[in-house]
Structure formats: structure tokens, C-alpha cells
Amino acid sequence: KLAAALARCRLRHNHSCIECFLPETVRKKQEMALKLPLYAWVNTLKSSLDEVQSVLRNAGFSQVKSIEQLKGHTFCQDPHCGDTLVFPAQLKAQLYFSKLLCDHKLIAQDKSCCLGPNAACSLLPEEGDVLMVGCFSGLTVFHVASLISQKHKADSKNQPVVYVCVNDCTEAQREKLRHTVSIMGCKNVKLMQEDFQSLDRGDKRLQKVRVILLIPRCSVSAVSNPVEFILQENGDTDLLQDLSRGPIAQSKLESLVAQQKKDIDHALNLPIRLAVVYSTCSSYPEENADVLNTALQKARDCPRQKGKPKLTNFRPIPPPFSSPDHGEAAEETEPFFMLEPTEFSNGCFLAVVDRKPDPAIQEAPRDLIARANAKGLFDGIGVNQKKHHEDAGGAKTTAQALCSQAHVSACTRSRKRQAKGSIRHQELQQPSQGKLQVPCSIFHSKQECPPTPSSSFKPHKSRPAKFPTKTSSTLRSAVPPSSPAAPVVRPRRTRADAQKPVVLVLPVLNFPGSFQPQHSCRGSFPGRWKAPQHHL
Asked: For binding S-adenosyl-L-methionine, which residues are annotated in this chain's numbering (predicted)?
């Protein structure tokens, strides 16, 4: 009955075959799908690129430089993914039953599914885990795990972990994913049953995550063979009805875009320290660049809230494999990477959002202590340090003053011994000569003071100078000048908040070596001399 109904429908619309009922866009995609070459990446856990190429050469294959040269028993290396080999479309059936694919040394998978794992693993540092979120097959998970194992082959004990969110998958898809991971021998893969939106920054499993590979559900509008692709990559089978009619329904597209925005927003909120890789197989800008630009703009405009990180340090960067010599089909609109669907590959979109490091803020130790005191972390540390410095300064001043006093006394005793050896000492206090004028030197005073006459005294009974017990300034006692006419040097002024002024009165000592004896008075003893009166 079904065949008869289809025959009557064909005659009614004057179509020669069933495919003629499909829209023009769908028929063009089918024609390109028949010409699509076979892409297969090398399983580095069981083999290597050189070993696989050697096996292919021994089997009669020859290597060419570009995909356009594929013809007959030839193969070439993909220009974007270094671990992926490309074969002509007519060899698909032969290669599927070859020993390389049966032993899982070569894994056949579409190129659009290989770009994301290669980009994520190339950005991953030596110590860092990967979080995979979205819609993908177990082969994609295994691809990421094998790339990480190859990158950290030297340190097999401490390999990064691949965390996979499987909450959006059905039970059958989860079981298929577990089976694929098991038969491939992946030991660094851990499945997470929680919903991606429920993961928060405090999750201990995310503390070492450096890269998030986000492959959300999309319209698959850039894929030429959507049926095969959806069945292999655990896609949404409900999209097949829309894809058979041509363009996808607007309501379905809006639903997909809304979910994609939630995923990328939440990915930027997680405590990753490196990058987010976003990959789709859609040709609609709403699912590609618009989603990224909206998420980044929202992060810049959103004010920083309490308990939430600021997202302004994210920026899109070119993918690590995008360069001008990577094929003509690659449309490299910086900073995104896009492949248009052609007869050589399906289309895809890939973007890398990198986290810029926070600028280092250098804070002075004094400001750090002041801020700590303001918070009460180090109570009194600033006051104690200030008091300690002041006490140290006072002790240093007192020591300097005592040293100066000792130096003055030593000089006085030395000159007295010289005077006694040359001439007899004369009494300094004589009524006929009057009072001697001695200079005064005021330390730490804001106003100048005129010379003050000092009381008579004998050299061996000089009055000791009194010094303050606590002072923050430095007292400098000058050595008595050899000449009475030498000016008194005023010490450097210190702060106005110093201690009380101190007056030092020093005697003027006159010796025969400094002045010639005066003989103006008759009958004066030639060995006696008078001290001249000078005002200092």
C-alpha cells in the first residue's frame, strides 16, 4: 500500500523519483554528501601517525599534499588537525573493513567533530583538566582523552582528567558512551551525572579545570549528511523533520539559541583559568558569533555582584590552528573560525574565549599594614613600630650627645697639658680684666638668641651640660674653636615638635700659642698675659 501511495503521489506531482519531493536546498546537500571524503583520526593510545602512514604505504596508498588531489588509493593529512587523515569518498566501504579501523588504530569521524578536541587540547597546560559539555558521541570524548594522553605521555601517573556532563543524554546514550570509553581503554575519563547549570564555583572537581569544551545542541544546518551525523553524534532526531523541509522553524531556532546562551553564560561563571572552546555545526549567525558576542557584552555590562566574579577579563582569540595557509575552504573571520559546507567537508563554527590574567597590583608595605590595622588584623602594629623608631632615635641622640661631651672634655684636657708645659697657668678670674664673654648656642629653638654672658669659673670646675632623657632630635656639640673670633656654627633645625631647647655654655680657653702677650702696661711681668675680650 505504501509503494502504491508513493507511486500515485509521484504521478500527481509529475516527479520521477521520491527525492524530487525534497526541497532544492536539501537535494544540493545530498549531492555534496555523496562526494564528502572520509576523515579518520589516529588513536595515539594504540598507534602513531607515522606507523599508520607506513601501514598505508605498504598497502599501496600514496600520500598527496591537498584534499583536491585525492583520487584512487591516496590519502593526505588534514590542514587543520594534524592527527587526522583524509581519504577519497569511493574508498569508504573498503576502509571501514580494513585492519586499521577494526583495531581502532584509525577512528572514522567527521572533521567538524575533530576541530573542537584539537583546539581544546592545544590550549591545555601541563597541569589542567578538561570539562566537556553539550551534545557529542563517545568517539569525541575518546578523542579528547587520547590527545591528552599523548601530550602527557611522559607522566602517565598524573594525567589530566576529562570530566563529561551526561545529564542531557538519554539512558541509552549514556550506556553507549560508557561502552565506548570502556572498549577504548580510557582511564582518565569521569562522567558527571549533575546538570551543567547546577555546577558552581565551589565544586572541588572543577578546581583544576583549565579548558571547557562546549558543544551545544544546534540546528546542524551546516551538515550535508544530517541523518548520518545525528545518529553517530547523539544528536536531536526531532531536527530531521525540520531539516527535510529546508530551513529550520523559527521557534525551534529560538529554543536552541536560548539554551546555548545559558550554557555559555554559565561556562564563563565557572572558575576556569584559561579558555572556553565553543563549537557548533550551524550556519546561522544566531547560533554562532551572535551568541558569543552577546555573552561577552553581557559580562562587560553586568556590574560585579557580591560573591560573583567579574567577567570583563574574557576575550575571543583566534583558534590555535587558524592560519592563512590552512585551505581555501576556511573562512577566518578574526577572531572566529568557520568552515562553509562544501564537497570537501561539512561546515562548522569554532570560537575560543580566553581569560586574560588579572593585572598585578603592587601595594606598598605601609599601605598593607594600614589596611590590616583598619580591619583589626594587626592591632597596634603601626603604633608599636612608630614608638620603637622614636625610642631608637632618642637613644641614638643621647648617645651622640654623650660622645660629643666626652670629645670636648678630652680636647680641653689636652690643651691644658700643653699650656702647663710652656708657661705657668694664669687665673682666669681677675677684677681688672672684667668678665669674659662666652658664646651661647641654642639647639632646637625656633627663635634666635643673642650672646649671653656666662659666670666666671675655673677650668677644672666646669659645669656639666644637662641633656634631656627623651628626645627625637640629634644634639651636636661643636669642639671649642682654636680662635676666639671663629663664628659659632648653628646646628641644623629639626622639627618643631621636638623636646625643650637646651642651652650649652662652653668656656673659652686662651693659650699662649694662639695670642702674643701684650706689653702695653709698664711693669707687667713678661711671662703673664691677659685674655683679650672678644664677643662671639
From this structure: 168, 195
Q: How many helices (H) and strands (E) does the chain have?
A: 14, 16
Residue 242 labelled as part of a binding site? no
pLDDT in tens, 454-483: 444 444 444 444 444 444 444 344 444 444
Where in the chain is CATH 3.40.50.150? 128-356
Architecture of the domain whose range is 128-356: 3-Layer(aba) Sandwich (3.40)
Rg (CA), the chain: 47
Residue 448 identity (one-letter amino acid): E
Q: How confident is the model at residue 413 (pLDDT cuts 50, 70, 90)?
A: low
Report DSSP letters for 146-186, one per residue: HHHHHHT-S-SSSPPPEEEE-TTS-HHHHHHHHHHHHHHT-
Q: What is the pTM of this model?
A: 0.64
Q: How far apart are CA 349 and CA 329, in angstroms?
A: 13
- DSSP characters over 192-224: E-S-GGG--TT-GGGTTEEEEEEE-----TT-S
How far, rounded to the nearest angstrom, does the alpha carbon of residue 457 sit from its chain's CA centroid? 77
Instruction: Give pLDDT tens digits for 265-302.
Output: 999 888 777 899 999 999 999 999 999 999 988 877 76
Residue 391, annotated as binding a ligand = no
Q: Is 114 a catalytic residue?
A: no
What's the pLDDT at 270?
Answer: 83
Write out pLDDT tens, residues 141-161: 999 999 998 887 756 667 889
When the pLDDT of each residue in the chain is averaged and rounded to a whole number, the result is: 74
Pick from 118, 81, 112, 95: nearest CA to 38: 95
CA–CA dist 408, 86 (Å, integer): 99
Can you tell me the distance from the alpha carbon of 25 to that of 216, in angstroms, rounded to the nearest whole number? Answer: 24
Selecting among 281, 302, 403, 411, the annotated active-site residue is: 281
Specify the amino acid at residue 331: E
